[in-house]
Putative ABC transport system ATP-binding protein
Amino acid sequence: MLLSLRDVIKTYPASSAAVLRGVSLDLGRGEMLALTGESGSGKSTLLHLIGGLDTADEGVVAVDGIDLTPLDDAGRAAIRRGKVGVIFQQFNLIPSLTVAANIAFQARLASRHDKERDEGLIDRLGLREHLHKYPEQLSGGQQQRVAIARTLAPQPDLVLADEPTGNLDEATADTVLTVLQDLVAQTGAGLILVTHSQRLAARLPRRLHLQGGRLA
Ligand SMILES: Nc1ncnc2c1ncn2[C@@H]1O[C@H](COP(=O)(O)OP(=O)(O)OP(=O)(O)O)[C@@H](O)[C@H]1O
């Protein structure tokens, strides 16, 4: 199983109530899942645990059969670098690097850089004419396409997208999600898309809702 969560519990030190109160989930390769839930329901928290950016208090978070919970920061970072790619609402591009350098950045860090794969992503995402520009010279939709290329360049097994189209207008959001879905489908990776939009969630084959700290 690509991703396996078992009875995951997470409480933040500052708060008394648990945000996640026993979350279990299996996701296979090639599966695409939309995750919805009200603001504050814990969607980002769950993605952070899956991406190894934070740890669960109890339960199992296993990526490709490796439980992240007992690992230290370096161990979790090593797993994330190779297997898990994250796309954020805010794009998080590096302002001092060109589009081309942004796209190659994470793949180089993970020693998984492949020029041919970059070229394919650049063409598929319509970024060729922008390669030598800097992020601030691009529109929001263009910046998010760069962020998608950067995340997919190392060919992750699991792609986590946290409101990736939240800053885009409806038409641009639709286009960006279509390209993301096509590209993920081509690589056979798994996808978890967090979204507030029922319209976008409906486009994915599997949907789960986070409420009261549990998935339904
Ligand atoms: N680092 C933190 N320290 C303390 N509390 C936190 C932290 N991060 C999140 N929380 C709290 O945990 C709860 C869940 O937050 P989270 O960001 O996971 O929700 P969300 O469903 O992603 O919300 P949104 O849709 O608004 O992005 C919220 O009550 C939030 O205030």
Remarks:
- Strands lie at 3-10, 20-27, 32-36, 58-63, 66-67, 84-88, 158-162, 190-194, 206-211, 214-215.
- The two ends are 20 Å apart (CA to CA).
